[in-house]
Amino acid sequence: MTSIDPSRRKLLRVTGAALAGGAVAGCSAAPGESSDSGGGSGDGSSGEDGSTGDTPEPTASGDGSSGGEWTETSTVEMTDDLAFEPKKIKVEAGTTVTFENVGNIGHTVTAYEDKIPDGATYFASGDFDSESAASEGYKSDQTGNIPSGESYEVTLETTGTYEYYCIPHKLNGMVGSIKVV
């Protein structure tokens, strides 16, 4: 076996990390998990300016998302690719966010109860008041399902970062984030 000197190992490690980071830009942590230890703080202190067209700043831990810029829009599309498009949006407090199902299969919008700002009102399609109620409602009779061509709206008043997912497609990585400023 050939020995690699320490400086070459470091170069390979740094290069590998950079390549891996670029390959997964826009992907999130495993469904239901966050890479930060303070998930749910909702302080919105990710350090990103959210502007489009500028070079994105690295994502600081604590915003629950990995890589990419925050898109300034109040409309999120739910697609047959099992994705929220855009995945990360930024809106002003008091904005009504509309989730439109542009695909052919049903989706839900379900906030992670522990990943919304302190004091924020919980939201989920089907008008549930908790994540467990939304999950049970969907499992029992698909309450909260948003069929093709329909939409769901929520008005967000509390500043911070909100993370949400689609119940039937969570394991497929259908998750998103909203930064309210």
From TrEMBL:
This is Plastocyanin/azurin family copper-binding protein. Pfam families: Copper-bind. Residues 25-36 have a biased composition (Low complexity). It comes from Halosimplex aquaticum. Residues 78-180 form the Blue (type 1) copper domain. Transmembrane segments: none annotated. InterPro entries: BlueCu_1, BlueCu_1_BS, Cupredoxin, TAT_signal. GO terms for cellular component: membrane. The keyword Cell membrane does not apply. Residues 37-47 have a biased composition (Gly residues). It is found in: Membrane. Keywords: Copper, Electron transport, Membrane, Metal-binding, Transport. Residues 25-84 are annotated as: Disordered. The keyword Transcription does not apply. One of its GO terms (molecular function) is metal ion binding.
